[in-house]
Design brief:
Helix content: 40-55%
Number of strands: 0
Shape: extended
Strand content: under 5%
Structural class: mainly alpha
Number of helices: 6
Length: 115
Protein backbone atom coordinates (compact mmCIF):
# COMPACT_ATOMS: atom_id res chain seq x y z
CA UNK A 1 0.00 0.00 0.00
CA UNK A 2 2.84 2.40 0.89
CA UNK A 3 4.48 1.58 -2.43
CA UNK A 4 1.29 2.47 -4.35
CA UNK A 5 0.94 5.80 -2.53
CA UNK A 6 4.59 6.61 -3.24
CA UNK A 7 4.18 5.81 -6.94
CA UNK A 8 1.03 7.96 -7.16
CA UNK A 9 2.74 10.85 -5.38
CA UNK A 10 5.78 10.76 -7.66
CA UNK A 11 3.55 10.49 -10.74
CA UNK A 12 1.49 13.48 -9.62
CA UNK A 13 4.57 15.59 -9.04
CA UNK A 14 5.89 14.67 -12.49
CA UNK A 15 2.64 15.63 -14.15
CA UNK A 16 2.28 18.89 -12.26
CA UNK A 17 5.91 19.84 -12.74
CA UNK A 18 5.80 19.33 -16.49
CA UNK A 19 2.86 21.66 -17.14
CA UNK A 20 3.65 25.10 -18.48
CA UNK A 21 1.94 27.85 -16.55
CA UNK A 22 0.31 30.76 -18.35
CA UNK A 23 -1.91 33.48 -17.02
CA UNK A 24 -5.36 34.11 -18.43
CA UNK A 25 -4.10 37.47 -19.62
CA UNK A 26 -1.55 35.70 -21.83
CA UNK A 27 -3.93 33.15 -23.35
CA UNK A 28 -7.42 34.51 -22.77
CA UNK A 29 -9.49 36.25 -25.37
CA UNK A 30 -7.92 34.58 -28.40
CA UNK A 31 -10.13 34.72 -31.49
CA UNK A 32 -9.28 32.89 -34.73
CA UNK A 33 -10.97 35.42 -37.00
CA UNK A 34 -11.50 38.70 -35.12
CA UNK A 35 -13.70 41.39 -36.59
CA UNK A 36 -13.47 45.13 -36.18
CA UNK A 37 -16.98 45.62 -34.79
CA UNK A 38 -16.95 42.72 -32.33
CA UNK A 39 -13.34 42.62 -31.15
CA UNK A 40 -11.15 45.54 -32.25
CA UNK A 41 -13.37 48.61 -31.88
CA UNK A 42 -14.29 47.79 -28.25
CA UNK A 43 -10.60 47.30 -27.45
CA UNK A 44 -9.57 50.63 -29.01
CA UNK A 45 -12.57 52.40 -27.45
CA UNK A 46 -11.53 51.23 -23.99
CA UNK A 47 -7.76 51.62 -24.35
CA UNK A 48 -7.05 54.41 -26.87
CA UNK A 49 -9.85 56.91 -27.38
CA UNK A 50 -9.24 58.82 -24.16
CA UNK A 51 -6.49 60.55 -26.18
CA UNK A 52 -7.01 59.43 -29.78
CA UNK A 53 -10.59 60.68 -30.25
CA UNK A 54 -11.95 62.46 -33.31
CA UNK A 55 -11.16 66.18 -33.24
CA UNK A 56 -8.62 66.10 -30.40
CA UNK A 57 -6.76 69.39 -30.68
CA UNK A 58 -4.81 69.13 -27.43
CA UNK A 59 -1.04 69.25 -27.37
CA UNK A 60 0.49 65.96 -28.40
CA UNK A 61 -0.52 65.64 -32.05
CA UNK A 62 -2.63 62.53 -31.45
CA UNK A 63 -3.64 60.34 -34.38
CA UNK A 64 -7.41 59.93 -34.46
CA UNK A 65 -8.40 56.29 -33.84
CA UNK A 66 -12.17 56.26 -33.87
CA UNK A 67 -13.47 54.21 -36.83
CA UNK A 68 -12.57 51.23 -39.01
CA UNK A 69 -10.48 53.16 -41.52
CA UNK A 70 -8.42 55.23 -39.07
CA UNK A 71 -7.67 52.20 -36.89
CA UNK A 72 -6.91 49.88 -39.84
CA UNK A 73 -4.51 52.40 -41.37
CA UNK A 74 -2.77 52.96 -38.06
CA UNK A 75 -2.31 49.22 -37.51
CA UNK A 76 -1.28 48.54 -41.11
CA UNK A 77 0.90 51.57 -41.89
CA UNK A 78 1.37 53.47 -38.66
CA UNK A 79 3.23 52.92 -35.45
CA UNK A 80 0.42 51.30 -33.45
CA UNK A 81 2.02 47.85 -33.15
CA UNK A 82 5.42 49.32 -32.32
CA UNK A 83 3.98 51.68 -29.72
CA UNK A 84 1.88 49.06 -27.92
CA UNK A 85 4.17 46.06 -28.25
CA UNK A 86 7.82 46.94 -28.88
CA UNK A 87 8.34 50.26 -27.12
CA UNK A 88 5.28 49.96 -24.83
CA UNK A 89 4.78 53.75 -25.00
CA UNK A 90 1.03 53.37 -25.50
CA UNK A 91 -1.39 53.71 -23.94
CA UNK A 92 0.24 56.83 -22.57
CA UNK A 93 -0.05 57.01 -18.81
CA UNK A 94 -1.77 53.62 -18.63
CA UNK A 95 -0.79 50.02 -18.13
CA UNK A 96 0.68 48.30 -21.19
CA UNK A 97 -1.73 46.20 -23.24
CA UNK A 98 -1.76 42.53 -22.33
CA UNK A 99 -0.18 39.96 -24.61
CA UNK A 100 -3.67 38.66 -25.41
CA UNK A 101 -4.86 42.09 -26.59
CA UNK A 102 -1.77 42.60 -28.73
CA UNK A 103 -2.21 39.13 -30.23
CA UNK A 104 -5.83 39.97 -31.00
CA UNK A 105 -4.81 43.09 -32.95
CA UNK A 106 -2.12 41.15 -34.81
CA UNK A 107 -4.59 38.37 -35.62
CA UNK A 108 -7.02 40.97 -37.00
CA UNK A 109 -4.24 42.27 -39.25
CA UNK A 110 -3.10 38.78 -40.29
CA UNK A 111 -6.64 37.71 -41.24
CA UNK A 112 -7.22 40.67 -43.52
CA UNK A 113 -8.76 43.37 -41.30
CA UNK A 114 -12.28 41.92 -41.17
CA UNK A 115 -14.89 44.70 -40.71
Amino acid sequence: MKKLILILAIGSIGILGSCESSTYDEIGGYVDNPSFEKNIKPLFDSQCTTCHFQGNTSEGNYTELFDYETIRQSVEYGSTIRDIDTTKTMPKGGAPLSKAKIKLILQWKNTGFQP
